[in-house]
Amino acid sequence: MIKKRMSKILLLSAAVLVLLLLTLSFAGCGNSKSSEMIQIKGSDSEVNLVQRLAEEFMAENSEVQIAVTGGGSGVGIAALIDGTTDLSNSSRPMKGEEVELAKGKGVEPVAVRFAVDGVAVILNENNNVDSLSVEEIGAIYRGEIKNWSEVGGQDEEVVRGDESIDKLELEIEEGCLALIATQQPMAKDLRKVATLFKMIVNLERMADYASSIAKIVCRIGSDPLIKPLVDIPRMAVTTQIMVKESLDAYIHENLELALEMIEKDDEVDKLHAQIFRELLTIMMENPKTITQATHLLFVSRYLERIADHATNIGKEVIFLVTGEKRYKTK
């Protein structure tokens, strides 16, 4: 079951790692040739968490020095086998041949789980559903569960985000048409209505892309990732900022904010190109990764398109404020 509150997972992870570091620092269990420094090497997806935990540990134990580096799970495991690191971070289990190679060099690897990936389902505070199974969550997203009472909640319709966005688009469009017909706006008032027409199209397309990303997440499910996700989360954060800033620029008619937001689109485009090259290389090296790599490519593409639509809104804000079409929309 997936509960509303999952914050204890990271606290437990931190406690396990600190306990492990404490054992190593005083028992001298490391294989590294250096006796003054505890070396930790491995997974890029875990390196930030481990670095933070190491800093907290060193702050409380000044006599202990810890060096944390990334490079990937395979790099960390190879360093453990070669005796050049005390701890190896890995987001995957050691392969059979890696275990045999380690034992051949007198290294007995001991696996310790110190972090757990999880998906938190956040419900509105007024929704009294206590827990949801993975199957129930899937049924909600597929539209098979249509009322919260079906999963122990109150008798209210389950509102799926993409469908509600489509309805809002139609309502706003009808409102704009009625405003033009009854009020006959002129000059800036007319530009404001025209801008709103363009905005709702861009927002609806953003919702479609967000829905598509959610479906891809469901398709990947619990399958191990073919690579640590580094650039896609960066794209997502920048894209979220762009969407918020584009709407703020419209609400406050802030020309400066619209211009600043548009500049961020280049950053998203560069990340998308980088992800494309990296995933293409992975697919060429290992054809078994093609399915998931294709899914991740689509996620990157959808994020890039959401950023493009945020840029379009920013360009419409420029038209609203200045009355000039300075940029071509994407």
Give the C-level CATH assignment of the largest domain.
Mainly Alpha
- Gap between N and C termini: 43 Å
Main β-sheet description: 3 strands, parallel
Number of domains: 3
Number of strands: 5
Strand order of the largest sheet: 3-2-4
Radius of gyration: 26 Å
Q: Supply the CATH architecture of the largest domain.
A: Up-down Bundle
Q: Would you identify the CATH H-level superfamily of the largest domain?
A: Phosphate transport system protein phou homolog 2, domain 2
Low-confidence stretches: 1-35
Tally of helical segments: 10
Kindly describe this structure.
Mean pLDDT is 81; it is low at 1-35. β2 (37-42), α2 (47-60) and β3 (65-69) form a beta-alpha-beta unit. With 330 residues, the protein is mostly helical. The protein starts with a strand and ends in an 8-residue tail after the last helix. It is 62% helix and 5% strand. The chain folds into three domains: 2-104, Periplasmic binding protein-like II (D-Maltodextrin-Binding Protein, domain 2, 3-Layer(aba) Sandwich); 121-158, no CATH class; 161-322, Up-down Bundle (Methane Monooxygenase Hydroxylase, Chain G, domain 1). α1 (8-27) packs across α2 and α8 packs antiparallel against α9. The protein is built from ten helices and five strands.
